């Protein structure tokens, strides 16, 4: 995908690194793109333990930690970092324009991108780990990515290519859209009222984030190159609950959707109409 170079005047980026800081661990991974099973099949973690670590939360106390806030320096620290900053610039511009066109320009707010390293990071949702994959924390409206995940995505999950990486970023950005529109809060409330449907509702929220990722790409079709869509579909399929667990986890315990569901959601979004994505989480 031929994205324009990042604009440090239009992105909020930082880098928090230096190992896992201290502090109380919270329910991290508010919208992590990979389910707990990834921790088991890729990183060798106990799936039940990881499932508890990635339980979504809405509240948390900010925890201080060293961070590099020089956006130019952070964005040029690696090729992956530059890609992420390019994507963030495009995502901000695309969604700001979409909100404006629909008469909700005052509701739009940019997220922060934290390209952390060293295996862990402190967040307003608690202590995060690279083993969880990229995630979004609604309490500080920040997307957290350890870019070493992209090597795992390609080498161990077979989902390489720049568009696969952009899909990861755009999915997490989709969770930010859910936060600033109130969809995330509505889903959490519905989960609390009906705990038996908690996983089903979580799947709907993740599929909507996939759809929003497709919307971003669909609104920038002039930048898409041959093979990009295939890379995105391959990535969506590679991280489906059924594919990651190899059938070892039942559909009742799915949290992100099957490979087909995720691919279908991304394909729906590629039509460029976010209103179609809104219908995914219509739980009323």
TrEMBL record:
The lineage of its organism: Bacteria, Pseudomonadati, Pseudomonadota, Alphaproteobacteria, Sphingomonadales. The keyword Membrane applies. This is Neutral zinc metallopeptidase. The keyword Membrane applies. Its main location: membrane. Keywords: Membrane, Transmembrane, Transmembrane helix. The chain crosses the membrane at residues 25-43. It comes from the Bacteria. Signal peptide: none annotated. It is found in: Membrane. InterPro entries: Uncharacterised_pept_Zn_put. It is a single-pass membrane protein.
């Amino acid at each position: 995908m031929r994205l324009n170079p990042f604009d440090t005047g239009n992105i909020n980026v930082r880098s928090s690194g230096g190992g896992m800081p201290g502090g109380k661990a919270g329910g991290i991974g508010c919208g992590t793109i990979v389910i707990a099973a990834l921790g088991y099949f890729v990183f060798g973690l106990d799936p039940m333990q990881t499932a508890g670590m990635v339980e979504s939360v809405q509240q948390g106390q900010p925890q201080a930690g060293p961070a590099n806030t020089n956006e130019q320096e952070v964005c040029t620290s690696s090729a992956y970092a530059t890609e992420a900053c390019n994507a963030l610039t495009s995502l901000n511009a695309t969604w700001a324009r979409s909100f404006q066109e629909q008469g909700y320009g005052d509701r739009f707010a940019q997220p922060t991108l934290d390209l952390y390293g060293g295996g862990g990071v402190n967040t307003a949702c608690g202590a995060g780990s690279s083993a969880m994959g990229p995630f979004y924390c609604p309490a500080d409206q920040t997307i957290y990515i350890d870019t070493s995940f992209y090597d795992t995505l390609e080498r161990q999950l077979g989902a390489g290519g720049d568009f696969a990486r952009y899909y990861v970023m755009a999915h997490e950005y989709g969770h930010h859209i859910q936060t600033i529109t109130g969809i995330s809060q509505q889903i959490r409330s519905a989960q609390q009222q009906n705990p038996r449907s908690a996983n089903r509702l979580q799947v709907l929220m993740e599929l909507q984030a996939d759809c929003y990722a497709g919307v971003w790409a669909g609104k920038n079709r002039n930048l898409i190159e041959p093979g990009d869509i295939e890379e995105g579909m391959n990535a969506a399929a590679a991280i489906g609950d059924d594919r990651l667990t190899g059938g070892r986890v039942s559909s009742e315990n799915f949290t992100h959707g099957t490979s087909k569901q995720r691919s279908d959601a991304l394909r729906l979004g590629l039509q460029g109409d976010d209103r179609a994505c809104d219908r995914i989480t219509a739980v009323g």
